[in-house]
Design a protein that fits this description.
The complex is a heterodimer of chains A (306) and B (309). Chain A is an alpha/beta fold. Chain A has a single domain, classed as Rossmann fold (3-Layer(aba) Sandwich), CATH 3.40.50. Chain A has 9 helices and 9 strands. Chain A has an 8-stranded mixed sheet with strand order 3-2-1-4-5-6-7-8, with helices on both faces. In chain A, α1 links the parallel β1 and β2. In chain A, α3 runs parallel beside α4. Chain B has a single domain, classed as NAD(P)-binding Rossmann-like Domain (Rossmann fold). Helix content of chain B is 39%, strand content 16%. The radius of gyration of chain B is 21 Å and the shape is globular. Chain B starts with 8 loop residues before the first strand and ends in an 18-residue tail after the last helix. The chains are: A alpha/beta (306), B alpha/beta (309).
Chain lengths: 306, 309
């Protein structure tokens, strides 16, 4: 399906990224396996994870090159893309999986916790897409698959940094799809749900238990048993989006969990109020809004007595 | 003059001009003491001028309202603390925060510089986090507060040539959804508004950009221009923002609204709409086989391939 194609996968040393790299290679692509090799919080880089996956691809008869640069830095992100061009002559596919977590309720979140998560997810995605898209535009062909998350699209408590970054990647995806589509480049996003070191951390499981006790609503969308969702299950949809067959799929979002793939709707105006004669007043809004645009809304975290 | 915000203290960032100024003025008219924050920069973020915020304060006071100016930048974590601190120092509390400050550096993604990306994301997204983070601490202690942040259809729907702005604005929508869940139990609501109004910011979008988009068959922000609207002044966005800051809207939390020229729309949350599922793992070939008849039904490419000129 991807014979002759060259792919870059960031965060490909473990979890979902590793599954994507293996599947792209199995479909015939030459793969740059990028991983900074850090802990889940972004600390302690190492070359191990990237080169382990390169070896795994080569053992299976595929072609791969390792890259241990960080996506968060503009210049090192360029070197990730350059690795594909220098080793394999081009770049057809970019999959941006690299990410870190620093969960904290917003009123306790430090600037450093915000910056670290935004740098890897959002700036990292921009950096790689920006450097890859100049090659893709010249080739008039390319496939970009970004990773967004239900944490941002639906809203998860305790993840203001991660949720904002992942939602911002959604916005980046929608705009990049419109900037690049005319050149034969597609840009789509995956919202994955899988059991990885990111989702099965002690902190995550503790937070889930705490939310449950406190009755905070969280949109699990019927995928509560995250432990049983294999990260390699996300890869087939990514390979499809990376193929020539998906040429007209652009600017879309897909939720992947286990053996299921769902198309995610994008926000639409669902209830409206309109005033054509003059400007709105607060009297108008108090009279009209509760029974129209606000009708039936539920507070996702209602006030609790102290 | 009303009394809906009597005794309340509001901070409005980017309140020196346009939508922010209209919000600050209406809040003051409803009895709030207002911190008018604006660095007084150009649309691209360059320069600074204290008199931009000062002039709004003078105008509010001339109408009998209460206001003070602040000239700090939202994009710096410590400076943002000073903005919120101004409300505490001058008026003893903070009940309402409106995150409105923003700049533009439009460019197609393949030509965008790192500096253009960083500048826009710093003011919109980091700036909204900074102010929200500092205000949330006080509001949580008070067990009450209202936060309204400006998002945009450029991010929520997608608009060509604005990857920095679109990403930042959709990031603000995500931040809003999370902060609503972090803070709701303390009696705080967090909502977002995608505004449309004739301001100096929209005046920077050249008509040629709209024409190029139409010629290239690139979709504009869906639904952004349903018709030519008569009442496009920023004063037509302010009432909805102020409404969200009043007691009447105490149960409205975690929502994104689109407000422009007399139109007020609730935007729905993204949600799974069609699902494919099978026993065992899909292969990419199997997905390719079923995609166009299932998930891909009715999908439209927002920017179809063009032959080179």
């Amino acid at each position: 399906m991807l014979a002759g194609r060259v792919a870059v996968v960031t965060g490909a040393g473990r979890g979902i990224g590793r599954g994507v790299a293996l599947a792209l290679a199995a479909a015939g692509a030459k793969v740059v396996v990028n991983d900074y090799g850090v802990n889940l919080d972004g600390s302690a880089p190492s070359a191990g994870p990237a080169f382990d996956v390169v070896a795994e691809i080569e053992r299976a008869g595929g072609e791969a090159a390792g890259s241990t640069e960080s996506v968060a830095d503009w210049s090192s992100a360029k070197r990730i893309i350059d690795t594909a061009v220098e080793r394999f002559g081009r770049i057809d596919v970019l999959v941006t999986c690299a990410g870190v977590l620093r969960d904290r309720m917003i009123f306790n979140m430090s600037e450093e916790e915000w910056d670290a998560v935004l740098a890897v997810h959002l700036k990292g995605t921009f950096n790689c897409v920006r450097h890859a898209c100049t090659h893709m535009r010249e080739q008039r062909y390319g496939r970009i698959v970004t990773f967004s998350s239900g944490a941002g699209l639906f809203g998860n408590p305790g993840q203001a940094n991660y949720g904002a970054a992942k939602s911002a990647i959604g916005g980046l995806t929608k705009v990049a799809a419109r900037d690049l589509g005319r050149y034969g480049v597609t840009v789509n996003a995956i919202c994955p749900v899988a059991g990885t070191r990111m989702t099965l951390s002690d902190a995550y499981l503790r937070a889930r238990e705490l939310r449950h006790q406190q009755g905070i609503r969280r949109e699990d969308r019927g995928v509560a048993d995250i432990e049983r969702l294999d990260p390699e299950d996300v890869a087939p949809m990514v390979v499809y989006l990376a193929s020539e067959q998906a040429a007209s799929v652009n600017g879309q979002f897909f939720l992947c969990w286990g053996n299921a793939v769902a198309l995610i709707s994008q926000p639409r105006p669902v209830k409206t109020l309109f005033k054509g004669d003059g400007y709105w007043t607060l009297d108008d809004l108090e009279r009209l809004a509760p029974a129209t645009v606000l009708e039936g809304l539920v507070n996702p975290a209602p006030p609790k007595e102290a | 003059m009303g009394e809906r915000l009597k005794g309340r203290v509001a901070v409005v960032t980017g309140a020196g001009r346009g939508i922010g100024r209209a919000i600050a003025a209406l809040m003051a008219a409803e009895g709030a003491a207002v911190v008018v924050n604006d660095v007084g920069a150009a649309v691209d973020g360059s320069g600074a001028a204290a008199d931009v915020a000062d002039e709004v304060v003078r105008a509010i006071r001339a109408e009998g309202g209460t206001a003070v100016a602040n000239h700090d930048s939202v994009s710096d974590f410590r400076a943002a603390e000073q903005i919120v601190g101004t409300a505490i120092r001058e008026f003893g509390r903070i009940d309402v925060l409106v995150n409105n400050a923003g700049i533009l550096r439009d460019r197609m993604i393949f030509n965008m510089s790192e500096a253009e990306w960083d500048a826009v994301v710093a003011v919109h997204l980091k700036g909204t986090f900074n102010c929200t983070r500092h205000a949330a601490v006080h509001m949580r202690q008070q067990r009450g507060g209202r936060i309204v942040s400006m998002s945009s259809t450029s991010g929520v729907f997608g608009n060509t040539g604005q990857v920095n702005y679109g990403a930042a604005k959709d990031g603000i929508a995500g931040l809003t959804r999370v902060a609503a869940r972090d803070l709701g139990r303390y009696g705080i609501t967090v909502n977002a508004v995608c505004p449309g109004a004739a301001t100096r910011m929209t005046a920077t979008v050249p008509e040629s950009a709209r024409e190029a988009r139409a010629k290239g068959r690139i979709a504009g922000p869906a639904g952004a221009r349903p018709q030519a609207l008569a009442h496009m002044g920023p004063e037509n966005v302010a009432p909805w923002v102020v409404y969200l800051a009043t007691d009447a809207a105490r149960d409205v939390n975690g929502q994104v609204f689109f407000v422009m020229g007399g139109l007020i729309a609730l935007l729905d949350y993204p949600a799974p709409v069609r699902t494919i599922q099978k026993e065992g793992r899909w292969t990419p070939e199997e997905i390719a086989l079923v995609f166009s008849r299932t998930l891909g039904m009715d999908l439209v490419n927002p920017a179809p391939v063009q032959e080179p000129a």
